[in-house]
Amino acid sequence: MVTRRPLIAGNWKMNFDHLRAVAFVQKIAWTLNDAKFPLTEVEVAVFPPFTDIRSVQTLIESDSLSFSFGAQDVSPFDSGAYTGDISGEFLKRLNCRYVIIGHSERRQGHHETDEQVTAKTKAALKHGLVPVICVGETSDDLEEFGASAVPVTQLRAVLSELSAESEFVVAYEPVWAIGSGQAATPAQAQHVCAALRTVIAEEISTESAEASRILYGGSVKSGNIASFMREKDVDGALVGGASLDAEEFAKIVQFPRHVIA
Ligand code: PGA
């Protein structure tokens, strides 16, 4: 059986300029260091705004911090007349490992479709980035179709276009749970994450389904992370609000200390 290394990812959204970003990453590093928590068991990734990435990269690399980092969006195109967009090639040059794609705030606020999410995912893979593909249902979807139907359809739309060798992460984020303080229950998260794993098996391969990490996101905090991580198909979390508080984020990262096997 494959062991999937848990991933705790901090999605900063449009918060922190590059100066605060540097101070913040240092604070998380010190907090984890003081707590003597080695980052071998858990992978930690931060997703700052584009303008912070160079500063975060420089800090992480010069201090040899064991953090990964990535961007919150990517253009489906390589270069050209696309005002305001950022190419995957540029992100790779900054040593980004990941890029978040199809976050509900982009699907809703920027009307991103499954086709665009697919094109961005392909662009990320082309440039050697690992896409964090976000899927999730709104409260209306939940009422009308149940929890897993919409996320399953969204994920299938992307994966049906990918090849077997692609490395990706899936983030299940019920839209109604994002920033609402009302997280899904661990059982709900498990139910949908298991359904998403089946989609990976059907669209890519059983090996990919075993190896790919599926995160839960939506009002994750230090007080509920352990309950999600006890679920067999939840391999980590995409954390928004709570990732902006260094102490709180460091507590979330240390979830293995609170998960009773
Ligand atoms: P939240 O956001 O943790 O503030 O609910 C999660 C996300 O949008 O990724």
* SS-based class: alpha/beta
Query: Uncertain regions: pLDDT < 50 for 5+ in a row?
Result: none
The percent range for helix content is: 40-55%
The sequence of SSEs as H and E is: EHEHEHEHHEHHEHHEHEH
The DSSP helix count reads 11
Strand count, sense and barrel status of the largest sheet are:
8 strands, parallel, barrel
Rg computed from alpha carbons, rounded to a whole number of angstroms: 17 Å
CATH topology: TIM Barrel
Q: From the coordinates shown, what is the CATH architecture?
A: Alpha-Beta Barrel
In short:
The protein is of the alpha/beta class.
Supply database-style keywords:
261 residues; alpha/beta; TIM Barrel; binds 2-phosphoglycolic acid
